[in-house]
Amino acid sequence: MDIITQRFIAIGNRIIRELRRLSDVIQQQIDAARKRDQGREQKDSPAPEVRAVLNAPQGIETRKGAADAKQERNYQRHILRVQWILCFATIGAFGAAVYYAHYAEKQWRTMDDTYTEIQKQTNATKQAAGAATESAATASSALDASGKQFRIDERPYLVLISMKLREKPDTPGHRITADVCWKNTGKTPALNGSEYAWVDIYPTEPTHPEDWVRKASASTSSHLSIGAGDQKCASNDDWTPLMQDDAAKFAKGCHIYFVGAFVYYDVFKERHYTTGCGFYEPSSSNAPLALFVCNNPKTSEIN
């Protein structure tokens, strides 16, 4: 039951209480008027006479005066009028209560239907929000992938394009000097580059390119920048001279190896590196001073 129905029922009950109180007041006034009239009649009437009647009466008849009868009729008329008013007021209050109870039920059903519709809309909204979240996540992933692909397409790529010795290492005491060239095949410059290069005699191929990258990162030499499509060459001549027993090492299958790394940054401030490894083969006649790329692919990679 809603608040409107409760208020109308309270108003109906209040009307009924007021009508009953009015009826009591009217009743009290009528009783007071009757008492005044009876007192007046007793005062004005002559003293009663006492008569002896010998014969027993056939019956007793009580008659009222015209004023008493009129007053009684008025009293009954007032009582009847008040009762009718109370009856109609009660019926009206009951009808109002029934009507507003029906109205409240109808309103409750409307609210229930509205609540059901709101639940449906809420579920639909949740589903739409979930779909929007998934779409946003998909779009974000696609955007990240697109940005990553853009950086991959636009980044610099350094390639070790040349490794060769300046002179044949066949004379004891001769310092071995290797010239290496790096080329940027990417679309944007390679910035703040630092290089590490080393030449030495090893019985087998070196297999720790991560050490070369670490030494290149720690290099204190001036940093280099290579533009898109450009190349820069550097030499390494700080290796110790060939010793007399190095020839015996060559006879046992050892080779002169060059190892190096170039660490650089792109325009997006991401770090990259390129490693290289080459070895000298004295028996080669095609390019007697060129270095052959090491067989292990991990020693020559672009990151």
The number of helices is 4
Number of strands: 8
Strand order of the largest sheet: 4-3-6-7-8
Shape label = rod-shaped
Largest sheet: 5 strands, antiparallel
CATH architecture grouping of the domain at 158-299:
Sandwich
CATH topology tier name of the domain at 158-299? Immunoglobulin-like
Please give a structural write-up.
Among the domains are: 1-37 and 85-108; 158-299, Immunoglobulins (Immunoglobulin-like). It has helices spanning 3-44, 66-154, 209-217, 246-251; strands at residues 158-165, 178-184, 190-202, 224-226, 231-236, 255-265, 271-280, 291-293. The strands form 2 sheets. A 5-stranded antiparallel beta sheet has the order 4-3-6-7-8. Strands 1-2-5 form a 3-stranded antiparallel beta sheet, with no helix packed on it. It has 4 helices and 8 strands; from the N terminus they run ααβββαββαβββ. A hairpin with a 5-residue loop joins strand 6 and strand 7.
Primary descriptors:
303 residues, alpha+beta, Immunoglobulin-like, five-stranded antiparallel beta sheet, three-stranded antiparallel beta sheet, 8 strands, 20% strand
Please specify the SSE layout and strand pairing.
Blueprint: H1 3-44, H2 66-154, E1 158-165, E2 178-184, E3 190-202, H3 209-217, E4 224-226, E5 231-236, H4 246-251, E6 255-265, E7 271-280, E8 291-293
Antiparallel strand pairs: 1-2, 2-5, 3-4, 3-6, 6-7, 7-8
Helix pairs in contact: 1-2
Please summarize what this structure is.
The protein is an alpha+beta fold. The chain has helices at 3-44, 66-154, 209-217, 246-251, and strands spanning 158-165, 178-184, 190-202, 224-226, 231-236, 255-265, 271-280, 291-293. Among the domains are: 1-37 and 85-108; 158-299, Immunoglobulin-like, CATH 2.60.40.
